[in-house]
Amino acid sequence: MHPHTAFSPELIDRIRRVYAQYGISDLENVGKPMSMDALVSLLGEAQAHIPEMQNRVVPSSFDPDDENLIAFPLPLSYTWSSCERALVRSRPRGVMMRAPLFWQLEAPLHAACRAAGAPIFVNDQANMPVGGAAIQLADTDAVVTSANDAVAFAAYLSEKKMPHPRLWILISSLEEYLRKTDHSREGIRGTVVEEVHLFPGLVLLEQCEHLADARGGFHASGTFHWEIGSEECLITSLQEDAPIPFARLTLPLALRKRGTCGCGNPVFERA
Amino acid sequence: MRFDDLSSILSHATSGAHSATYRALYGMTPDEPPRRIRSIGEWRALPPLTKDALLSSPMRDRLYAPLSEIDHIRASSGTSGKGVLFSPRTHVRGMEYRLGFHDFKRPFIAFTVPLMPHWHESFQKEHGLDPRVIAYDPKHPKAIARLARATGADGMSVFVFHITAIGEEMKRLGVEQQMKFIEITGETCSRSQFEYLRRTFPSATIVQSYNSSEVEDAHIGMPCKPMDGTEPRAVYHPKKTHFLELIDPETGEPIEPRAGAEGDLLITAYPGQPCAFPLIRFRIGDTVRVVDDACPHGAWSFTVLGRTDLDFKKLPGGMLRAEAVARALARFPGRVSDRFELHCHDRLTPAGAKMEPVLHVECGAEEDLERLALDVAAEILVAPSFSYAQGVAEGRYLPLVCRRIEQPLTGKTRRITVHTAD
C-alpha cells in the first residue's frame, strides 16, 4: 500500500463537514460502514450542488444506459497519476484512446500523454480498421481502453496480421474485475498494465512496472485508506480536495496480501 | 497573410529533413536549396497539395516538429480509397473570437472535432476560467445529457448531425433551455436543421465553423456572425494565420475573390511555431462562394457550397448542385424540409444515356410527390437563368422523381450520390 496519512477521527470529522455543505442529513452515521447503495443515495442528494462545486465530473456508472447514472465530481486538480506513471516509464510514441468518450477520461489522459511527450489519438471502439492503421501508420504504440475491448481489438489485429501496440493500459470496473477469469487477457501481446476503477477515473487498484507483467497482482490506490478484510474492503478518502469523499465505503472486494513488490509496496490479489 | 509570409512559409516547408512531400510535389532535386518566390504569380504557379499527396508518405515523414510537441492526431479517409490519412496537430491557437459569443464560465460539452475536449479545457484555463468540459460521446447522448443536467453545462461544440440526438435527450431531461451557446461544424447545416436548433435551444447563440481534419490550424472558416436564419446561413472569413485562394476546379486558373465568385478552395495555413505541418495551397475539395469582398473582419467572406467532387453533378449545359436543390426545397417550407438525398442514376433512353435524378425528401404523408417533383424542378437552377424543369421541357434531361424518406435523416448524409451501374 502506498504511504498515506493514518485513518483517524479527524478524517471522519472532515468528511462530515464536507457532507454538511451539501445538506446531507445523515451525518451521525458518517464513519460507520457505508454500502454502495448508500453512496449512490448520497450522490443523489449532492447532485443539486454540483454546479456550484467548480469540479470536473465523471459518470457514476460504466454503463451509459444505466438509469441510475449520475455525475460523480472529481477535483479540478485531478490527475490520472497511475496512467501517467505507466506512460512516462514506457515512453510511447503515440497513445490511442479507445475508452468510451462518455467516461470523461479524454482530458486526463491527454494530460498524462503530455507528461510522457506523446500525442493522443482518439479511436472509436467500433472503428478497428482505423485503430489498426494508427498503429501501422501513425506511430501509435500504446492503447488505453476497457479490458473487454482490448481482447476484441487484439483479436482483430492478429486476424489482420497487424502489429500490436507495445503497451496496453486496461481499465476494468469493479464488477468486471470481480467476475474476471484468467482468459481476460487472451490474445493480447505486449506489456499490459491493468487498473480497476470504481467510477471512470477513480482508481481502486493499480499496477506498477514490476506488476505489469506479473499477472493478477495489484497495489491498492494510495488515494484511500484501506481496511482490507477477508470478504470485503472498506475505503476512506484521504485527498483533502475530494469533492465527495468516502467514509468507510464498503466494497464487495475480497483481497489477500501476496507479498511485497519490488517497488516496496504490498501486493494484493483477489482472495 | 502578406506575400512575405507566404514566401517565408514556402522556404520553411521546402527545407529540412521532413520536406520530402513538398520537394516531391514541386519537382525539386535533392541538392536544390529551399524554394523562394519573388511574385504572387510564382506562388500561384505552385501545384496545389492534395490529400492523396499527403497519403503518399507516413505521418512521421511529414512532421516539422518533434513528436513530443504533437498534441494529438486526427484521422480522415482518403479520397480515392487509398486508406486513412493521419494528420498531426500542435495546440490550436488564435480562437479568442469565441469570447465574443460566450463567457465559458460554466461547463462546456465538446465533441473531439473540430477541437478536442482537452483543448476546450485549455481554452478555459488560458482565459482564467475553471476547466470544466464534458466530452460529447455521439454513441451515448443520453449519458451526456445527464451529465449536462448535473453540472449546469450551458454550451456545446458538436457536429451538425449530432444535434437531433442530443437535443432530444436534453428535451427529455428539460435542460435544453440552459444552453446559451452552440458551435456546430461538419456538414452544411440545412434550413430544417437550423430551425430545429432554433426551436430546441431558444436561448442559444448558434455559430458554425468550417474545418477539415487535415488542417492543423483550425478553423478554416471562422464564423463571421451568429446564425440567424438568413441566407446564406453560415458565413466565414479566413483566420489571420491563413491565406485562402479560389481556383477554377476544371482549369486550376485563379479566380478573384469578388462577391458572387465561386471556386475550389485552396488553403495555406501556418500557425507559427510549433507547427506539425505547414500547409501550402492545400486543395481541400470544397467549392465556396464569396459573400462579401471585405467583411467586417478585414478579409473576404465566403459560404461553403459543398464537396467539389460529391455535391455536384454535371449536366449538359449546366450543373446540378446540392446547394441549388436545398435552396429549391426551402421554397416549400410547409410541404417539405430542405434535408434530402439526391440519387443520380444513369438511364439508357432512345436519345442515349441520360441521368435520372431521384430526390429523397422529408415530407408529409399527404404530399403529392409528382406535383412536388414538378414544383421543385422548376425552382432548381442548373445555370444562372436556366432551371432543371426547362431542361426537361427541352428534352435535355429526364424528369425529376421525388420519393419520401420514411425515416428522418439523423446521421451524416451524402447529399448527392451518383450511381453508375444501375
Write up this protein:
The complex is a heterodimer of chains A (271) and B (422). In chain A, 30% of the residues lie in helices and 23% in strands. Chain A is of the alpha/beta class and 271 residues long. Chain A has a single domain (81-270), classed as Rossmann fold (3-Layer(aba) Sandwich), CATH 3.40.50.12780. In chain A, the strands form four sheets. Chain A has a seven-stranded mixed sheet. In chain A, a hairpin with a 5-residue loop joins strand 7 (191-197) and strand 8. The radius of gyration of chain A is 19 Å and the shape is globular. The model of chain A is unreliable at 1-5 (pLDDT under 50). In chain B, strand 5, helix 7 (163-173) and strand 6 (181-185) form a beta-alpha-beta unit. The longest helix of chain B is centred in the N-terminal third of the chain and has 11 residues, at 3-13. In chain B, the strands form seven sheets. A five-stranded parallel sheet of chain B has the order 4-3-5-6-7, with helices on both faces. Chain B has a five-stranded antiparallel sheet with strand order 11-10-12-13-14. A four-stranded mixed sheet of chain B has the order 21-18-17-22. Helix content of chain B is 22%, strand content 28%. With 422 residues, chain B is of the alpha/beta class. Chain B has helices spanning 3-13, 20-25, 40-44, 51-55, 117-126, 141-151, 163-173, 191-200, 322-329, 369-379, 388-393; strands spanning 72-77, 84-89, 108-110, 133-135, 155-159, 181-185, 205-208, 222-223, 236-237, 242-247, 254-255, 262-269, 279-292, 301-307, 312-315, 318-321, 336-349, 352-363, 381-383, 386-387, 401-404, 416-419. Chain B has a domain at 312-419: GMP Synthetase, Chain A, domain 3, CATH 3.30.300.
